[in-house]
Design brief:
Layout lengths: L10 E5 L4 E5 L48 E4 L27 E7 L13 H19 L4 E8 L11 E7 L4 H17 L3 H10 L2 H4 E4 L3 E4 L10 E5 L11 H22 L5 E6 L17 E5 L15 H4 L2 E3 L3 H9 L6 H4 L3
Parallel strand pairs: 2-12
Antiparallel strand pairs: 1-2, 3-4, 4-6, 5-6, 5-10, 7-8, 8-9, 9-11, 10-11
Bound molecules: 5,6-dihydrouridine-5'-monophosphate.
The site of 5,6-dihydrouridine-5'-monophosphate (H2U) has 12 residues, from loops.
Length: 353
Amino acid sequence: MEKFNASEHPHLRYNPLKDDWVVVSPHRAKRPWQGQVEKKAVEEVPRHDPKNPLCPRNTRPNGKVNPDYKNTFIFDNDFPALMPDGPDPPKSDDPLFQAAPAHGNCRVICFHPYSDLTLPLMEVDDIRHVIDTWQSEMINLGKVNTWVQVFENRGAVMGCSNPHPHCQVWASTFLPNEPSVKDRTQREFKEKYGLPMLVDYLNKELQKKDERVLLESAHWVWLVPYWATWPFETMLLPRRHVLRLQDLTEDEKKDLCQMMKDLLTIYDNLFEISFPYSMGWHGAPTGKFLEEDCSHWQLHALFYPPLLRSATVKKFMVGYEMLASAQRDMTAEQAATRLRALPRTHYKHQSSQ
Ligand code: H2U
């Protein structure tokens, strides 16, 4: 019998955070592609578009005028998915027809006044404003909400509705599905093994750095998780045990600015485009959880890019993925090797050097 080789042979990998499995089919990356090809995103974005509702000084469709902001600008989403007030659905005894209250706040954070910038093209000082804003939003919204989800959709392919650099914050009085599962899995891990899952995981990844670790700084480690599902999915972890984004120290935040710039530059350099992704932060829940022991949690940022083999070929999570299990076509280690080989100078700045 042939010896198992992870970069040749199909196998399953366990995601201990989500308590599920991903099918890894490394040999499939070689297959020819005649399916859908995405349009290459238009890279020419004007610095200021008088019609763009996220630009400084412009009037949004609801008549509100944006200030002449110089770094970040935060406002309540004009089309919020969740609202702080409103009637609750009636309780039901029928297990098949259950509903529950859903309240919350949705906010939009513009990162910078210039529409032609993205996080990797911004100065580290400007990225610092974004991180400080994430922290203040987490603190304010976390007082009454159980979960505050900071997330950025970048690129039309990920549903981003506006080219201006921005992210969203959705805060809810309930714990959504993903963090709810992660709360359980991390709690059970700590009870069983005595330390937080992701603290243990990072220690182990750092013992074999050449496999999945991509970048290290004084306070942060960027890696491809062993159980990654999306082709170039990655995770960013603090070295220290940190429960929430708002607990980061000055030094950790300063270091995070450069780390974000570097890792997002590497992403852009992979296919020499403004790399599409959904990213977001997961840390211990807030609201009533602020008073509870959440030491099983470890803060982490997640990056889910949809592209597979080029700027225009996307990984589809359809068919088998919808009906059976998530599946990927190359191993986490193969993705790490490709990302690790890329320069930290943005491709838009390389020719001028
Ligand atoms: P996305 O690009 O990730 O869709 O985020 C943009 C958000 O900005 C979106 O949720 C909001 C949309 O509702 N928005 C406003 O609140 N007001 C506007 O005038 C434009 C967009």
